[in-house]
Amino acid sequence: MISLSDVQAARERIAEITYMTPIFTSTKLSQICGNQIYLKSEHLQKTGSFKIRGAANKVIQALQDGAIYVTAASSGNHGQAVAYIADQYRIPATIVVPDNVSFCKENAIKGYNGHIEKCGTTSRERLPRAMEIAKQENGVYIPPYDDPYIMAGQGTIGLEVLEQVQDADAVIVPIGGGGLISGILTAIKESNPSVRVIGVEPQLANDTFLSFQNKQITSISGTNTIADGLRTNQPGDLTFPVLMKYLDDLVLVSEDEIRQAFSFVMERMKQLIEPSSATTVAAAMFNKLPFQGKKVVTVITGGNVDLDKVSDLIVDTHMC
Asked: How far is C-alpha 311 from the geometric centre of its chain's CA atoms?
């Protein structure tokens, strides 16, 4: 497993590439939730999501090891991040995306000079294809989550949270493959183990929830959740042991709750975030957290949303 020193090393490695993203608050949101809520705003990160942290850490290491070409498999944000870093270092990148990839994410990958190949709709389909291309072209495959350098890079968010909200009681993190939360868990639990870390998944993409209950990796057949960044089939082999060791709790949110949270953040806080990001706000808004009156940081993972799909995500919310 990765350690706190790996996360600290990642922070130094990516310092000139990534931002320390701001913390937002909302009095109304805190009133609704019964907790003091802070939003760690990775939607304002370079390439529009937290993924640049892990991608930068992994690609820079690959370059130091002699890489001249990289590939990735991604529903969008990881692919954007890999394409961006590869473009910065002037090496080619091929990104294998799902057939139903978000239009804005596809355009962004192309904007960073990444070559796109479409393959299926699940990570189970596109990951092997990206690995195959890397092998054929003598390149390096950059995993989306199940890799020590990716996990350590994402964990730098945890270090920032501890500095920005020094008396935080809990941090709420979305779970896809587990790269983000395993890195944050390592950073927080090995720095201040009293801070609780709670994971959130959509009810329609509950592979980690089932795995956590079963105490072993459990896969699902697929999902069509609106939280497209969380559409994984199972947690990673490297990420899951970290969750089993450190995770305090894992909760589920419905599609309607995700829409309600998305709409609230857009209407009241004037921030456009992804449905995947809205899962953490939804967990706080709809009483999924096992406490009240605490200082809670919700990790907002990204803001790459097709503008023509925003109307489909907005609902009337009585909470506004």
From this structure: 23
Tens of pLDDT, residue by residue over 233-273, are 899 999 999 999 999 999 999 999 999 999 999 999 999 99
Residue 318 maps to a domain: no
Question: Of 141, 170, 186, which closes a domain?
Answer: 141
- Claim to verify: residue 101 and residue 67 sit in the same structural domain: yes
Q: Would 131 be classed as within a structural domain?
A: yes
First to last CA, the chain: 42
Per the CB < 8 A criterion, the answer to whether 234 and 220 are in contact is yes
SS3 59: helix
Q: What is the DSSP letter of 72?
A: E
What average pLDDT is seen over the chain?
95
Question: How do residues 53-63 score in pLDDT, each as one tens digit?
Answer: 999 999 999 99
Angstrom distance (rounded) from CA 208 to CA 128: 21
Whether 47 contacts 81, CB under 8 Å: yes
